[in-house]
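Morning, I've got a small favour to ask if you have a moment. Here's the protein in full, and shout if anything looks odd to you:
***
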Amino acid sequence: MNSMSLKHLAEAVGGRIVGDPDVMICGAAGIKEAGAGDITFLANPKYASLLRQTCASAVILSKPDADMTGSQLIVEDPYYAFSRILTLLIEKPYRPSGISDRASLGQGIRLGRDLSIHPFVTIGDHAVIGERVSLYPGVYIGEESEIGDDTVIYPNVSIRERVTIGRRVVIHSGTVIGSDGFGFATHKGRHHKIPQIGTVRIEDDVEIGSNVSVDRAATGTTVIKRGTKIDNLVQIAHNVVIGEDSLIVSQVGISGSVSIGHHVTLAGQTGVAGHLTIGDNVIAGGRTGVTKDIASNQIVSGFPALPHRQWLEAQAIFAHLPEIRKRIKELESKIERPKSPQGRKGKKRSGP
């Protein structure tokens, strides 16, 4: 890691210092594990007691702590400031490695300046590669695809033909962008492939995890908009549109032609049925099954998706269902049991 003074870090994140501004920071760690030379942070007040125990040289806080002996960096958002400082500590100046003579370059391609194209990269005909792009070993760029400036594509990523990748995009190993959408016409009991003639557009500042599949549109474009972050092992089907600054967590599956707004969070293992619309600022809890449209500014959970509070109430009842069922059966048996004869017994008639 790089080594920087706390004063330098404070200037970078717009914070103020309580304590020694000249203390040198050469590492970062969690508040329990941090030692001398490390910086850490505290964002949740319930862990405030750990401030008296930490061995960190500096702690990032939202307000000063009078009982702490080490240096303090006071900022509005400690977690965000920590992420920026961590980047500063690990970031190294970009130094292009050039184009390996073991890379395979197609005809009519356009290459920007200061590239790092590693061995066994394949670039198809008429592709466009921007400036300061890093393509790691095993990357495949299909014909007529475009890769924007400062994008990093890690090993064994496949970007199919006619795909557009924006600037400052990060794509992790094993991901496939632009594979065929899952489209078949069933005729007389047999499934016939529908050619997927559309494309994919990944906008600026998107990050895509490992082993993600983003399918090309049947016609038109599958779109991941600016600033969206996608975790590992996600499936995004053809003609999906995901809005700006959304978070798509691991093992989410999004069916075809779904429209998702901006600042949406789909937690792990959420599934979305096809041709639905999810509004802006929606949060879907883990393992939610979305089977109908969701309006903006909702928090939903469960399968099928319910408002989160309603789902919590249902979950609280669920554990008591056997007891409730038993009680209902008891009540039903009481209702159905014949009533005993009431009043005086009638006399037998002995004849006419």
Remarks:
- The mean pLDDT is 94.
- The chain is about 15% helix and 30% strand.
